Amino acid sequence: MGNDDKTLGLFDYDGGWFFNILIDELSKKKPLDEYKEDEIKDITKNFFDGFALDMADMAECVLETLKEGMPAKLKERRAEIAEFEEHIGRIWRKPIDLLEIFLEICLEAAILFHEKIDPHVTSENKYLYQVLLRLHGRGCQVGAEVLTLINSGFADGAHARWRTLYEITVVAYFIREHGNDVAERYIRYNAIESYKAMNVYQN
């Protein structure tokens, strides 16, 4: 294969739009078959370096443009979300309100439970008390997440969190049924899970 054949062989490739831009730039100066292989390599390297700089400048320009238009865009987006949530409210207001009332009752029940039971906690039931109170609080939090997701129209997400709420309830019933010893084991195992999660995060 002669030098001209080798040179032409460098262009025997469909590299998409980026490669086509390079070919166009080379063609503007002289016919492709007049380029030497080393010359093409140098031009290509310079082209890629320059293109990378252009892309960086372009990205910066796009970012600044987005920042300038962001307040108006976010205002428009939030108005659309508010309108959608109002639409959901018009259709599902009654069941959503009932859920919110139920969650408020659960929260108040936890406060009353703590006020009434806390003075009577002993070494024989302290772990059971701690676990049930924690699980109840966790359930209230997940319930609030469900309410937020429903209000925003994320039915699948709300359903997933509701399953989590059911799991919390099952665990609470199981621990209540088996008493302080199981509650203590649950607390100690949570410490192990936290340790494992910490190691995963650090690695």
What is the topology?
Elements: H1 3-9, H2 16-29, H3 37-117, H4 126-151, H5 155-202
Helix content: over 70%
What is the straight-line distance between the termini? 54 Å
Shape descriptor reads elongated
Low-confidence stretches: 1-15
The secondary structure category is mainly alpha
Q: Compute the CA-based radius of gyration.
A: 32 Å
Largest sheet: none
Helices and strands, in order, run as HHHHH
**Share in β-strands:** under 5%
Number of helices: 5
Describe the structure.
This protein has 203 residues and is an all-alpha fold. The protein has a domain at 93-202. Helices cover 87% and strands 0% of the residues. The protein has helices at 3-9, 16-29, 37-117, 126-151, 155-202. Helix 3 (37-117) packs across helix 4. The longest helix is centred in the middle third of the chain and has 81 residues, at 37-117. It is elongated, with a radius of gyration of 32 Å. 6% of the residues are buried. Mean pLDDT is 82; it is low at 1-15.
Short description:
The chain has 203 residues and is an all-alpha fold.
Write out key terms for the chains shown.
203 residues; 5 helices; mainly alpha
